[in-house]
Amino acid sequence: MNRHCRPLYSWTAILVVLCLGTIDIAPAAAGLAPSQPSGVTTIASTRDADMLMAQRALENKVVAQKLRDYGVAPADAQARLASMSDQDLHTLASASKGLPTGGDATGAIIGVLIVVILVIVVLRLMHHDVIVK
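Given the sequence above, the corresponding structure tokens read:
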């Protein structure tokens, strides 16, 4: 190292330490963000919650297909759902809690297959043998 560069490095290091020491570093504040309504759904009563659950059950492909097989149009099913009493609507919503909302399980199956493939690829990259019996 050159003798002339040594003071430059020293002064640069001192300047960096002073600059970093004078910066006011405030402690980080963390917290939950306040929730904001999305405007998509507003649930003001138990009837609205039951109506939402029943509508999501009607979106299920199996349920929609069965209704079409029986000759019920989706618009007719929605109209009948809107005219149901609170007790009947609650009974229907309680019965539809076990159904998947809005579709079948193909997305979940594809997700599991992708995870399995990723695990196999990682094991192969680590030079481990993958034996399926």
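Residues 43-99 form one domain. Try to locate this feature in the token string yourself.
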